[in-house]
Write a structure and sequence with these properties.
The chain contains 19 helices and 18 strands. The radius of gyration is 28 Å and the shape is globular. It is α/β, with parallel strands linked by helices. Helix 7 packs parallel to helix 8. The chain is 39% helix and 17% strand.
């Protein structure tokens, strides 16, 4: 047992003697992080991601790209990571709420090496809602957030701050932070009102490093000190810090981490693009990062061609990498086709506790008017002389999304994806049940199974109703809206309140 515990501790990310890629909004996405690691960075931080947005995400294993994606309800990939960086990537979040921070940390902890809280960014997108450098004036909240994370997850927790107006206040805050149990603290040697044109306060970082026993990561030296690999050690020595975190110098040329010497910007940009293609990076994000590397050449004819590019293929054309784009794209398409041929693993039911799950979403356009999976499941239950399906629906408070579990023949079925409405959540649960049982669900193009009677498929072909039947039906329709008609055929229990994220280990 003792040996196992020591091995587990040994696997934890160490923050002593490291060269670190700083968290940078719009820059610290997967291609830049992987390129920095290739160039010699020991640890890479992702860009700051806001807790409210991350809390809405679903964890999705992307077998085509070989990544783990955290996907928002609008299908945007908020955070993408892969096995190559798993032991060295730090997830940074913006938060001002301990419980929400913990929910996000639990969502990502198995796919990252550590979790960091941003307490230093002075920009409005970070400070609104009391996040970023706004936390510096609320030490009690800082302690609450960090203690909750340290006690709630298995991975190391760190934070990144800016210095306060006085040295005494800065040291006092850092000592309070140390008591929360964090593994390390990154200190940007500028006050929140200062910008890169202001000199970095190495003396403040040095005082912090001397006042605590945990590793201190010095940040903020790109303009004043760090311009080459050798300068990393110069900055570390000047601050007395354990490690050095680099932002702008790495954004301009990530090969600043390269012990053998920096590569040309042209070579670095090509390597960056290859990662962007390989991991299907958003073309506008790719273009933004490339423009940061071009710096003063962004207004050159070459820079203008890059700026005009709208797709990844067009970006590759500017850099003469069209052949690489075509080859890589073909490989990804072939991998996708092979996965589909071998069976979509995401369509294989998984047992979670006592619930059969599958990541499916109800798309209304895939079904004819008046036909839904719930109707098919109800008719099948009647045909098999089973109790009619019972749906229990939960509503997630942070984004008011819904997830439903249906019970049929004493077995429970649920989609792992959250839906925008209660009705859609119930339909998704019905789909999981039908697909697990190998039953038709009524999709367009599906052979008529006879489960749902002809009246429901085509009201115009029904036999004429007599006067009494017509009056009864009109009264029924007037009392129940058409889109809610199917709700009368099942019992539904709605449960609202704080619900944790539902994630699946695929």
């Amino acid at each position: 047992m003792r040996k196992m515990m020591m091995m587990k501790m040994g696997d934890r990310l160490c923050f002593d003697g490291k060269a670190v890629l700083a968290p940078m909004v719009r820059v610290g996405t997967l291609p830049m992080r992987l390129l920095a690691l290739d160039c010699g960075a020991d640890i890479v931080y992702c860009e700051e991601l806001i807790d409210i947005k991350m809390a809405q995400c679903e964890r999705v294993v992307n077998d085509v790209l070989e990544t783990v994606d955290f996907v928002a309800p609008d299908e945007r990939v908020m955070f993408r990571t892969c096995s190559k960086e798993k032991s060295r990537v730090v997830f940074q979040m913006g938060t001002a709420d301990p419980e929400r921070a913990l929910a996000v940390a639990k969502l990502v902890e198995n796919d990252v090496a550590a979790v960091d809280v941003n307490m230093g960014c002075p920009k409005e997108y970070s400070t609104k809602g009391g996040m970023g450098s706004a936390l510096l004036s609320d030490p009690e909240k800082i302690e609450a957030i960090l203690r909750t994370l340290v006690n709630g997850i298995s991975k190391p927790v760190t934070c990144k701050i800016r210095i306060l107006p006085t040295l005494e206040d800065t040291v006092s805050l850092v000592r309070r932070i140390e008591q929360t149990g964090v593994a390390a603290i990154a200190v940007h040697g500028r006050m929140k009102e200062e910008r890169p044109r202001h000199p970095v306060h190495c003396d403040y970082i040095q005082a912090v490093a001397e006042s605590v026993s945990i590793p201190v990561i010095a940040n903020g030296g790109s303009s004043d000190i760090v311009k080459s690999f050798e300068d990393i050690e110069t900055f570390r020595a000047a601050t007395g810090a354990s490690s050095v975190m680099i932002a702008r110098a790495a954004m301009w040329n990530p090969s600043v981490f390269r012990q053998q010497g920096a590569l040309s910007v042209e070579r670095v940009m090509e390597d960056y693009i290859k990662y962007a293609v390989r991991y299907d990076n958003n073309p506008f994000n790719t273009k933004y990062c490339l423009c940061q590397m071009l710096r003063d050449r962004v207004e050159s004819p070459f820079g203008k061609r890059l700026h005009a590019a709208q797709t990844t293929e067009e970006i590759c054309e500017v850099f003469g990498l069209t052949d690489f784009y075509m080859k890589t794209n073909a490989e990804l398409k072939a991998r996708k086709a092979a996965l589909q041929t071998n069976g979509d693993q995401s369509e294989i039911p998984t047992l979670e506790d006592d619930v059969i799950t599958m990541p499916v979403r109800f798309e209304r356009r895939d079904y004819p008017p008046q036909i839904t999976p719930k109707m098919f499941l109800l008719e099948w239950s009647r045909k098999e002389k089973l109790d009619q399906p019972v749906y229990e629906t939960e509503q997630r408070t942070q984004d008011r999304a819904f997830q439903s579990t249906v019970t049929v023949a004493d077995k429970k079925y649920r989609s792992t994806l959250w839906e925008k409405s209660k009705k859609f959540a119930e339909q998704a649960a019905a789909i999981v049940c039908l697909r697990t049982l190998g039953l038709p669900e009524g999709r367009i193009g599906e052979e008529n199974s006879g489960l749902v009677n002809k009246r429901k498929r085509d009201d115009n072909k029904c036999a004429p109703l007599n006067d009494n039947e017509s009056a009864t039906r009109k009264r029924h329709i007037s009392e129940v809206p058409q889109e809610e008609e199917e709700e009368i055929i099942c019992r539904t229990k709605v449960v609202t309140g704080d619900c944790g994220q539902t994630t699946s280990e695929h």
